[in-house]
Amino acid sequence: MHNLSQTLAEQLNISKHEIERRKSFLNFTEKDEEILLAYKPVIAKHCDGIVKNFYDFLTRYPEVSAIIGDAESMRRLSSAMNRYVLELFDGHYDIDYVSKRLRIGLVHQRIGVSTDLYLAAVYQLQLNIHNTVAMYEMGNSDFMDMFALRQAINKIIMFDIQFVLETYYSGLVNQVEAARKEVKKYANSLEKKVEDRTKELEELSMRDMLTGLYNQRAFFDYLRREISNAERYRESMVLCYLDLNGFKAINDKKGHQEGDEVLITTGNVIKKSMRDGDLPCRYGGDEFALILPRTTLEEADTFAKRLIKNFKIPEMCGVSFSMGMAGIGPDVFIDHEKILTAADNEMYKAKAKTKQRRGFYISSTHVNA
Questions:
Q1: Which of 108, 196, 335, 347 has a CA between 20 and 30 Å from the CA of residue 18?
Q2: Number of C-alpha atoms within 13 angstroms, CB side, residue 47?
Q3: Count of alpha carbons within 13 Å of 125, Cβ hemisphere only?
Q4: Is 362 left (phi over 0), alpha (psi -120 to 50) or beta?
């Protein structure tokens, strides 16, 4: 992955000269580097608390909790975040440092973290660091110019954000450039080609890179749309929330590559089992959200049986699934958060049965209010 981030740096024309140029735009000087390095021992002392407060705040949001997953993932993320915070205060910000930041952008893009969620998280981290600085200032006002320290912190975080977001958009920029060249070559079909290319880019931005299903961002957009359509036309709709059983053991014992193969196969089975017009989404980790428009719970039960039939246990390394289903309409409707909560609750009811015996379990409810 380190070589890949270096390749990204080359593709984005990020050289030593470019790094210095970007520092100059932020007025990020050697003095700022010295200030950050001098404060590193204090940050190291309080780093665990900064990271804990950071995740305590973020995990209040379902989108973040879904991405993080289980306690082991949280442990690894906290360890990585600890290193990230300390690196902010290394006092040396060269091409190796930038390559690490590009890698962070690549990883966030791969797991489906949206840019708005990433920027909100960075802002929260920045607040936590500033709060630590403020507490230390009360008893150590002569340690250094605290205003200069706060300015240096703001500069290095803005410096980081540039490079992380660079990897989010570099692929899209390349595709837009390719579209521009095609438009020049085929001027007579300019309007149609731009429209087609734009739709393609929008579709790519809403797909999970691993499974090919819609990603979490697309899921929320489609869920809101389908609830609105169901209410407008007085139709039923079902949301299925699916969680794999035994998946963590595959990652732990056989590695993430084997785990990725299971997720890819799961995505293919889901697509094979769903009808045209249904919307299969990867919510995060080993969780999937399936939107079934114009569907009753009875019809959804038929779909669930078809999905179980297509789910070949040997090909899935022994993995099965638990699924919760929440139905609404045609008379009573609720917002997207409530139906997601209802489906999630049903999934946990189904999941509880796996403690007694492994297999496929479905639990469903019709939400009346």
A1: 108
A2: 19
A3: 25
A4: beta
Q: Do 150 and 9 belong to one domain?
A: yes
User: Rounded to whole angstroms, how far apart are CA atoms 271 and 255?
Assistant: 25
Cα separation of 12 and 21, whole Å? Answer: 14
pLDDT digits (tens, 9 = 90+) for 72-85: 878 888 888 888 88
| Nearest Cα to Cα of residue 359 among 248, 246, 240, 242 | 246
Neighbours of 360 (CB within 10 A): 19
Question: Is the same domain home to 132 and 237?
Answer: no
Number of Cβ within 10 Å of residue 356's Cβ equals 8
Single out the residue of 259, 222, 252, 256 nearest to residue 239, CA to CA. Answer: 222
Residue 351 forms part of a structural domain: yes
Integer-rounded Cα Rg, in Å, for the chain is 24
Which pairs with CB-CB distance under 8 Å and at least 24 residues apart come from 156-162?
A: 156/28, 156/32, 156/36, 156/88, 156/93, 157/88, 157/122, 157/125, 157/126, 158/26, 159/22, 159/23, 159/26, 159/28, 159/93, 160/88, 160/101, 160/122, 161/119, 161/122, 162/22
Q: 274 — alpha (psi -120 to 50), left (phi > 0) or beta?
A: beta
Digit-coded pLDDT (tens) for 313-359? 677 888 999 999 999 999 989 999 999 999 999 999 999 998 888 88
Q: What is the pLDDT, as a whole number, of residue 1? A: 45
- Distant-in-sequence, close-in-space partners of 360: CB < 8 Å, separation ≥ 6: 308, 311, 320, 321, 322, 323
Predicted confidence at residue 176, as pLDDT, reads 65
State which of 121, 152, 177 marks the end of a domain. 177
Domains identified in the chain, total number: 2
Give residue 333's identity as a one-letter amino acid code: F
Return the residue matching tokens 């359509």. Answer: 229
Strand 287-293 and strand 237-245: the pairing is: antiparallel
Is 208 inside a domain boundary?
Answer: no
* CATH classification at residue 142: 1.10.490.10
CATH number at 306 reads: 3.30.70.270
> In which domain, by residue range, is 119 found?
2-177
Q: What is the pTM of this model?
A: 0.49
